[in-house]
């Protein structure tokens, strides 16, 4: 999970501020760090930092970023120490010019490729896939002297997920892997072409959504305009496997991915879930924020009143003083508070988007009970998560995924709910309205070879 | 608008961390600054700063705040430069001991009192009402030698709104003005008594809501327990005039004020608004976040589907780079984005909590239209705001209040809506379920003399 | 110890930046905090903060300080927590206008006065003498309606040291106590009058030193020009008792105080010390920085070569990681390092300005011995410090002053020097060239009543 | 100009704090940034940042640097934007392990080598020589599998100055280039071996100076102890060309470089300068701080009294508000202030260490004249600087060096001195007491080929 954004200004205007706004709209895709690189035609200028977009950038440093082509990145908060060295875009200098890469996704075999390159004398300074990609591309470039050919060649060695925006000298390039795991779209206004992880990034700069970058497509934008080609001949959108969790959870509801409104998907999920797993409850209540839209759909379908039984503290940020061991439940209370007047003596059905470890669900069910609910039922807007993701979503190990080893009823017992129901895989496909999805985490069937992930 | 919180620990444990959690839950009442003062029985220790609660406090400075009685304050962001000198609680030293005050509300005649005190030789270092209150109380204290008598005497001179928590030597005191303008409640657990602006502050520390502080009541907590008295004999809850906007907009929906659930009020508002100002629309959509609950009630009453047609960027904070003049619309777009797939070709009724100047409403209506809505109707969950507030709510002047000079139809024309409807005053009273409210801003009838406000 | 600076611009130009430069030159008088207050003729604007002048001020906040009259302050680092509330200038609002005070010195009876004022209902928010002064002046002002009369009246009650710069509405006022404990001088250029703690503050803004403010003098500068009067009739410069340590240690050597060059005094001290306490050494070496000029004089007088045997780390600041208990000697080594090639096998006479507790001298003598010196002699450019200062110099208690209870030979033994010699009181008077000095700390004779200091 | 420091702890204790102290003592060699990398035997841990050593490090981040071998670096402030990417030590990961490099010096042909490496597919992320060195060493390592052999091979391709400390897996390696341009020495105590740019770095941690690293020597420290070898057979200390400016200006006076005390050199410079360029003056005065020691020597030789005629503001840091164009002279006044009582009506001879552009000297002479000096003579403790340095000293271009095109008399005229005298090259050699010096900047004879510097 990361967000990427790029602009090519045909009128040669500075683009850094617009990239800043674009990243602002993509902030939900990553809060750990942010960076912008622009080219003024001869030189690259960049600024990166740890924190939210408005914490990293200010008028002073934005104004120093003079350039009419540029790319930006917001980095997802992962476990372990966050260091500025891992912030993107990643910039390298080669004998054929400067190259900057912004990457969203995980490449399954990057550690194998890195080891191979190291044997050949390549030297790495960060622990990111982006640096591996940069090395591969520059290595090819020295052979082919052609950036598009190089990207195309490199892609043949890559297994996994990569939506890329590349700034190479005076050219802006967008690449989406052949499986189209992660979203990437093209925008336009009178002066500029845009590339954005999600269409909500285009809305904020008042650009028009032209279309999505196709799986396996390389889009090139330079002074001659926009061009397209594919990393190989045998690519078909039918074979795509776009991450279903983009629709279920990650993407902003106001985004449209591959022609499908994320909002509509979430609403559909609620309706289908209601048909598959109805509940004789007095009220439907979402676990905010991710369960809200599905809960409305669920309520509508079953004609059970929708109530906001849990209130989220809008100011809960990343930096509150960590509660000590005995204050763990406090951490949940700081974030969510039940509305007793709603819940008291009611049969409540809670709607959440997913269950990972089960511990948070357990705390929430407990909180709703303590607030006076007579019964607490839980309905989940996605199937059981049974396998980890290797394409860019931060998940615990298989052992920690509660659904990998427990039945629905065992999970229900663990979280202490009166009943528990998940959306079926078929229901999910129907809600999204497309079949070419990556369902690895809920089916265990990975759309690419993942054996290399475990090779050392 | 400010939030206040206090604790007395009978088991003599440090209270600063719990005050921190309480202020965290009251953060919606003020984001400009925060402060905590504690007493260890002999000395006061304090820390204040500008910014959000988790920005002002960290483990290091919280650990330095040793003391078993304490009060805290979150300050509302007002226009003009924010300076640390105005942060509360306000602490003073007198010959009879130390006194700290945390204040929520505006005192109409404080400038007159201040001038009078200045003539008598009093000297002020901040521009806050709290300092004026501190001077008055200490002045009385030198006469009466009794803190409760002093507070009682002082209250006779005060016109306006004041919910106070006072730390005087080893005593914690809560005061609510005779009109009960601002909320204030009492909580309890095995070890502590609590005072909080709203009951959601008690929930976060797992304390039980005992009751509200009554209008005109002085609650005293010390080693001998809790006691209560009134600032004068002729006070009756019937004569209270509690700010109706606490229910409509300010308070957190999970709070209960004077026995009435804020959430229920907002839901009722939607229902009554639906009856008073129905609309033949395809969908009901809230202006997030403040219009959400009323929109659900509106939708339920009229059986029009509820859709989230505008998505709010959850990361919009206080510190983004200010857009230049020509980028004003961008500022709204950074905050709200329409979901075109929902709005396209629809007759949309938008629900918002209030209209102040009208300019933001105009931009939102425009945004919804551009997103493809066929018709845009606006319904407001409160009556027309025609008069400024003198009791603590930051409002523009009467001239800037669009409803002070324009009819509903003129306002509708200004904001370019297809229709516009406000909740009636009677509807509002019915929704809240109590009559003893301050309705000054919507009726022009002020519950206290306000002539002094204009005296120089 | 603090530094104060003020400007009145007759050409109505903004003065904040020049005050910033003046405070920069007075930085040696205080590093804990800094502040500037200016008046634009109707309003005061101020900025204060903890830290060095260039840390507190930047172009942005300096530019906001619009005003043609202004005063500034640098605060001395004292023991205990430093808090922004104690930073000066101290600003108060009264019914007769705004008043800001910048104060250098300690008022012996301020705690008595404060207690008295508290009994009368005055309320204090800081623990500074400046606030007490402000209250006294405003109290008088309400009676007399005349600022100069008020200052004059107030001064009758004050015992101790006070060099003040006061900004009252549109008037700049400089006051020096009748004993002239602390320096204060007047400067001038084509556009402005200046007041500064030391003449080096005038040099930096290229102003001409007009003269010192006389003991007991009140200098008033407003649109009508500059005027002078005295706090009482029976004041004579002969009765002054200016702090001798200003010449010996505090003031910058390029300053001129009461017509006497500080540099020359320090040089003289070395020469007279050489006559009084000669030494048969191979080299003379200063303890940098304060012993340098006297060491040169000492070397010159005895014709013993001058060598810099100890090198000071120029980057030692206030913020290095505190060494643990066992690393105490490291703290001295971080600051000072011996030059072995100079000291090896030499008879060394070290020159320092004073001995307070004796522990640092002991460490330095030890360090020089370890570096190979054959003999280590110590000569001190001031008499034995036997009594604490009550006029503004931060000193330990009498018990901690090593010379209060030990003879010269006992001190010599404690610090492990081969010989030890102090400048005599007569020698000091001769070196400075004036008799009207405060010698309390070396003679025990206080020029004012100090009994109130010990009254509670 | 940079400072480097390394420790190997045989008792396996954490070394980060001692490296911090070492860097503190080397702070004069670089103020732009600092970094420390340690190895715990399996992993590297590092922290870097912009600013002074105590600004970059605190107890928290020092405590996280767990490891018993480590290296540190302070970076010199160069023109242009300072970015964290250029901070050292530079860390790389290769298939044969981790490598960190701290580098002091400039490699003349690094840009040629970099270009060659880029052609071979190497990719660079910073603009530092250190990264080029890291790539070369790792490349050799893949061939030879031996770190010492690799360093030795690499050194054959390098032209220029490099004192290096390398951390490779569990080995600490010190390297000094065959010409010994930059200093580097070895220290020892009971538990540790140390490597430091200057011996003052050893003093601060109470380590004993063992000896200097010889020109062309590679010193290896690991669990088996310390070993030494040379980069080639034909290296002789006689052929060294150590930077003379280390003795004249850069190094701390308490350091000993190649067995010669820096303090003694500066004193000698003053004496020899006095013989070569005597002056019939009333007083000798240094331009502080760099001219002080030589001025004392000059004064001693000619028996003219030594006076500190210019006082330096000890608090002038890196961050004061930049004066506008018309305030340029103010910038000098903020830093230096003349003591009028010393200078008035005197014939003054000023001693400075060097003249670069001449503009600062001109301002200082002017300042001394304005302070009342009758005559102002200038004597310079080094020969005319006529050629730029290519080995690591930040100097302007040849055109900007005033002595590259002007005669002594023309320079005298420009700076408006009554007379001007430089130390001769022979005098300088005599003062230092060794002939194997780099005198390129004063002679134009470069000890290495520099033609590659200008090749593109």
UniProtKB/TrEMBL annotation, chains A, B, C, D:
Role summary: Catalyzes the formation of phosphoribosylamine from phosphoribosylpyrophosphate (PRPP) and glutamine.
Keywords: 4Fe-4S, Glutamine amidotransferase, Glycosyltransferase, Iron, Iron-sulfur, Magnesium, Metal-binding, Purine biosynthesis, Transferase
UniProt keyword tRNA-binding present: no
Short name of any one Pfam family annotated for the protein: GATase_6
Involved pathway(s): Purine metabolism; IMP biosynthesis via de novo pathway; N(1)-(5-phospho-D-ribosyl)glycinamide from 5-phospho-alpha-D-ribose 1-diphosphate: step 1/2
Protein's UniProt name: Amidophosphoribosyltransferase
Transmembrane segments: none
Annotated Gene3D superfamilies: 3.40.50.2020, Glutamine Phosphoribosylpyrophosphate, subunit 1, domain 1 (3.60.20.10)
Entry superkingdom: Archaea
Naturally occurring in which organism (per UniProt): Methanothermococcus okinawensis (strain DSM 14208 / JCM 11175 / IH1)
Reaction catalyzed: 5-phospho-beta-D-ribosylamine + L-glutamate + diphosphate = 5-phospho-alpha-D-ribose 1-diphosphate + L-glutamine + H2O
SUPFAM superfamilies: N-terminal nucleophile aminohydrolases (Ntn hydrolases) (SSF56235), PRTase-like (SSF53271)
Positions contributing to Mg(2+) binding: 290, 352-353
Membrane is among the record's keywords: no
Active site annotation, chain numbering: 2
One function term, GO molecular function aspect: 4 iron, 4 sulfur cluster binding
Cofactor binding: number and manner: Binds 1 Mg(2+) ion per subunit. Binds 1 [4Fe-4S] cluster per subunit.
Binding annotation for [4Fe-4S] cluster: 243, 389, 438, 441
Record EC number: 2.4.2.14
Family: In the C-terminal section; belongs to the purine/pyrimidine phosphoribosyltransferase family.
InterPro entries hit by this protein: GATase_2_dom (IPR017932), Ntn_hydrolases_N (IPR029055), PRTase-like (IPR029057), PRTase_dom (IPR000836), PurF (IPR005854), PurF_N (IPR035584)
GO BP, sorted A to Z: 'de novo' IMP biosynthetic process; purine nucleobase biosynthetic process
CDD domains: GPATase_N (cd00715), PRTases_typeI (cd06223)
Cofactor(s) listed: Mg(2+); [4Fe-4S] cluster
Domain Glutamine amidotransferase type-2: 2-224
